[in-house]
């Protein structure tokens, strides 16, 4: 009997219970893979939901996203929900992996769902290959032309998409966890693979995406496009758009898997540049609809609760680099416990304008009718300020995507899953590393000038040498600040345009850039539930001097 395995040891162990004795006879109530996926219409529908299931896994209300955001100073919250108060503490603490720890639910949720989805995608490919080998097709033939062109095109599109989703599931596991099980269509459905390092998991993820590209480039595959809009809610991608989406993911994953500056420097930047240059040409926007299974659990909570004490506000440790008055210098030069909130005044249109708090409140986005394409992205709060640490509290909330959650919208509306600026900044980073500063400046300035900032010059250590520069970054001693060079300008643009998009965006970049506070975890451990099922010892990561913990970084934090 073949079980519908998930790839997780603990679930495999549960699934094996009762599979001996009387259950050795065929059991039509058991989720046998060959039987479950043999119906073309069912298999087609399952493959179509692949990216949706991944979105649900990483954007659910109990995902690790809130923890990653506070680790990277992308957000600040003092409540115990989602272990935010634990992760944001300075000095940093370990990610505790003992049974029933504070973040056990969140830490396990992403791991288990992404691991399960990688198993499902492998099973889909196996079942589709069995179907086509027997002469079957997804869909129903409507004549000779459909049978020889359209149906093979639909088969190839679905096969490519399953490989792509396999790559996304494994790639996200490799971004977050220090190890995971590698499952591919070559893995037997009953196998429980051993844990492999994040670097090996990512190599496999990229290989799956290469397979997705190769399949989609077969001559008959073109008849299967555009990609149906239900694959990526609200988008009907042409073959070219689909291939660009995959290559953008490859660029994101190849650069993002690095845990340290040394690993980031060792990335194959020529390949990142090639993929990013041939990547998406506009934002990947998902039409959020919780009723249709495309919700934003945590972000919804954050935006709904942003007026409530302790859920969210913008910390100024990184965001404050926008200030041009010297207030940020005073802020970062003070001892951590003595830092004081300040008014950010900047030419950056993503911030509300004004020299006083009332003026900025008047220039802030309102509580209704807001559009994510409009400036500013940030509001100066007009409600009561929540209490918190001096270094984390501010006057500001991130408001760009609030329109999704306003009143009757009720978790419905557009949200950026992958920003074009993210991919452009990966190309710019590759250009900086390889010495093509002119090309890097062109990419960076496309984002900067739109936001009202002056263009930078293509010299890495010049071009921002004026008193009101943006960004202004701490020196390593943290006793003063200096104008950021072209690399810092790239980082600033990427942060501002990817905030609250994608998956753990700031944290992934910050560890590779060396920008996390000392002791911050650079990986999550494999959750204790999985370790327990494998009879492996538990272990913690992060904390001062701990395993996979950030060293004192770029900004002296």
Write the topology of this structure.
Layout: H1 9-16, H2 33-36, H3 40-48, H4 50-59, H5 65-71, H6 84-87, E1 94-95, H7 104-133, H8 144-176, E2 179-181, E3 195-197, H9 198-216, H10 239-256, H11 261-265, H12 269-277, E4 284-289, H13 297-304, H14 316-319, H15 327-333, H16 357-363, E5 378-380, E6 396-398, E7 412-418, H17 420-434, H18 437-450, E8 472-474, E9 481-483, H19 486-498, H20 505-513, H21 528-533, E10 541-542
Antiparallel strand pairs: 1-10, 2-3, 4-7, 5-6, 8-9
Protein described:
- With 557 residues, the protein is mainly α.
- The chain folds into two domains: 9-296, Serine Threonine Protein Phosphatase 5, Tetratricopeptide repeat, CATH 1.25.40; 298-408, no CATH class.
- Helix content is 43%, strand content 6%.
- The protein has a two-stranded antiparallel ribbon with strand order 1-10. A two-stranded antiparallel sheet has the order 2-3.
- A hairpin with a 6-residue loop joins strand 8 and strand 9 (481-483).
- The model is unreliable at 1-7, 13-31 and 140-149 (pLDDT under 50).
